[in-house]
Amino acid sequence: MLLSLVFVVIGAFVVAWQSGALKGAPGSNPPASASSAGAELAQLVIKARSGMGGYSREKFPHWATVSGTCDTRETVLKRDGQNVVTDSECRPTSGSWHSPYDGGNWTKASDVDIDHTVPLGQAWESGAASWTTDQRKSFANDLTRPQLRAVTDNVNQAKGDKAPDEWKPPLQTDWCAYATDWITVKAYYQLTVTDGEKSALTDMLNYC
Fold first, then answer.
1. How many CB atoms lie within 10 A of CB 136?
2. pLDDT tens for residues 139-165?
């Protein structure tokens, strides 16, 4: 009888975990599913963007030193690449990278940008303008949340500071991951969304 009860409790825990009902601190983990991402999206504050007045990339110091001579960019290049070899300054000398946004494959680090899922300018006009410089530095170098991805350089440049209602990854197969990543970052940092942005994210979750 006791053993049966244990199995029931464990089963209930697993169901709750899979449904996203059991979570840690806000933003501590990526959404486990489209439904949990949708729940997080529903809690985001809807507000018109404040505009780019006063913005500059220098107000989001990056790339920060992570370990030894490796900074955030180099750390992401090693994390997201295959067979990456670096020199004494932690600069990649060989390796390969696959860009999830467009499916591009590259063997030169110079062809790869490190994209901020939620761009710095977009963060600025949805709440980060009121942050301290240290808070903005943490955001720009966040290796814990799904905020940094190695992607094709010109695709990243085409994205710029656009939100999902203005730009989406060229590959629809990445829309689910992109939307859940975007929501995770905005939820953790308590950034706002617009009606158009929320609608675009809701549509992208339908591709999960």
1. 20
2. 999 999 999 999 999 999 999 999 999
- The model's pLDDT over 71-112, given as tens digits with 9 standing for 90+, comes to 999 999 999 999 999 999 999 999 999 999 999 999 999 999
Cα(2)–Cα(100) distance, integer angstroms: 48
- In Å, what is the CA distance from 16 to each residue of 23, 183, 188? 9, 21, 21
Residues 69 and 116: their CA atoms lie apart, in Å, by: 22
Residues in the chain: 208
pTM above 0.70, yes or no: yes
Buried b (16+ CB within 10 A) or exposed e, 162-187: ebbbebbbeeeebbbbbbbbbbbbbb
DSSP state of 46: B
Instruction: Please say whether the beta carbons of 126 and 186 come within 8 A.
Output: yes
Q: Which residue has the tokens 């609608």?
A: 199
Lookup: tokens for 5: 């009860």
Amino acid making up residue 77: L
**Two tokens at 99?**
């860009």
